Amino acid sequence: MKNLYDVIIIGSGPAGYTAAIYAARANLSVLMFQGYQVGGQLMLTSEVENYPGFDDGILGPPMMEKFEAQALRFGTEMIPEDVTAVDFSKRPFTVTSDSGDYLARTIIIATGASAKWLGLPSEQRLQGRGVSACATCDGFFFKNKEVAVIGGGDTALEEATFLTRYASHVTVIHRRDSLRASKIMQERAFHNPKISFIWDTAITEVLGEDAVTGLQLRNVKTGEESVLPVQGVFLAIGHRPNTELFK
To answer: Which residues are known to be catalytic?
Structure first.
């Protein structure tokens, strides 16, 4: 049967590549749809410090290149396209991409997650004009500017720390009075003179017409409102799974 594989993997992050390595080593025919943005979220990560085997850490993109090379070595086929449809109604399953239909006895879903947004109309309008969810992608454009990072987890502090390479100052805004980030990330941020914190605060509006000029803030405990002048705002409030294709 044409284009029939034992396993088709949708997604090319660490989970997808790990599945490909194990399946291919088991002598199964494996096809991976990598998507048009290959490598998952680690392609946007400045440095990975908690993965075994890299005592000095490793940048996200080189790490994903190693994952890909290992999967290829065991015979995984790869297509750098997005999957547009999946039919689970009969076996073998059908996976559709821009290049056609492919059949699979088994499908592994490894589509990862995408950044969450606040849901403000002004936030959506100013995306790409000062609003971002990727410091690694856009940090360079904020050289010597004041920026804000929204969130209180590891991602928020990683983004804030990375942005200090470029920005004149980084303000981390968190809606609680303590961080959820790991202790080592907190210590780095607290000891960085270019990072400050605003606690118990939510963003009610992103200010600016053609570009971000500030944030409208509201203290969640007192209700007091204020304005923070910034030229950039980076969202780091978590992720939602990329499962729309399967609903």
So the answer is: 134, 137-138
**pLDDT 10s digits, 33-89:** 999 889 988 887 778 888 999 999 999 999 999 999 999 999 999 999 999 999 999
CA-to-CA dists, residue 157 to 15, 62, 153, 225, angstroms: 24, 22, 7, 24
CA–CA separation, 41 and 110 (whole Å) = 12
Alpha carbons 68 and 76: distance in angstroms, whole number: 9
Domains, the chain, ordered by start: 4-111 (3.50.50.60), 115-240 (3.50.50.60)
- The CA dihedral of 121, 124, 129, 131, to the nearest 10 degrees, is 100
149-177 average pLDDT score:
98
**pTM attached to this predicted model:** 0.80
3-state secondary structure the chain: CCCEEEEEEECCCHHHHHHHHHHHHCCCCEEEECCCCCCHHHHHCCCECCCCCCCCCECHHHHHHHHHHHHHHCCCEEECCCEEEEECCCCCEEEEECCEEEEEEEEEECCCEEECCCCCHHHHHCECCCEECCHHHHHHHHCCCEEEEECCCHHHHHHHHHHCCCCCEEEEECCCCCCCCCHHHHHHHHCCCCEEEECCEEEEEEECCCCCCEEEEEECCCCCEEEEECCEEEECCCEEECCHHHC
